[in-house]
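Notebook entry, structure prediction.
Reason for the run: the old model in the group folder had no record of what sequence produced it. Starting over properly, with the input documented here first.
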Amino acid sequence: MSDGLIRWPDLGTPHGFETRHGNLENTFTQPIRRVRQVHGNIVHFLDAAADTSPHTAASIEERPPGDALVTSASSLPLGVATADCVPVLLHDPVTRCIGAVHAGWRGIAARIVPAALEVMATHCGSRAVDCRAAIGPCVGRGVYRVGPDVLEGFASAGLPPSVFDAHAVDDTGRETALCDLAAAARWQLQTAGLVPDAVWVADRCTATEESRFHSYRRDGSAAGRMTAAIMLD
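New structure, fully documented this time:
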């Protein structure tokens, strides 16, 4: 992390997760393709012939809505921005296909992570068993207390109770629990077919490591954003 970026060397292709002390602007030779993140399950596939200019728009509002991008084109960086949500970078070295996923709790409940893998399979012939995934910094289990909306949303999506801990009742009588977003994303990846050793978790908490990460939960509207991006070499 000498350049301030977080990486998993075994992911096997150029990538990085930004921190307060490192950015990706010098990592890639082309602009990073992005989407207008909407906390859903829309995945964009960009092939080599695609007009990707909307995905490089300076204005967020001018970008296509979605929460994940997939490509098999070389030298086409894909990225998502987070400030507590889970960034997931995917690489299939067999079919040479990559993906970048923004997974907040709503996106996880909407199955954005397996949706990205499904697009990789449909357009690139990827098999989950061949894929590798890096899960970047996000809000940690010890501080992310959620209410019935998340508990019910995850249960409807089939996520196991183990992604929650320290159940309690708040002042209004609502059930709450501590939520492990990274574990939820990892569970979805492995349930889709990735082998355990092919899923790496940064295990860094954006909310508690104030000197290193931006956090919307901690700083509200004043929070910055951090990009996670990947490109086929």
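Summary: The longest strand covers residues 86-92.
The old model has been moved to the deprecated folder.
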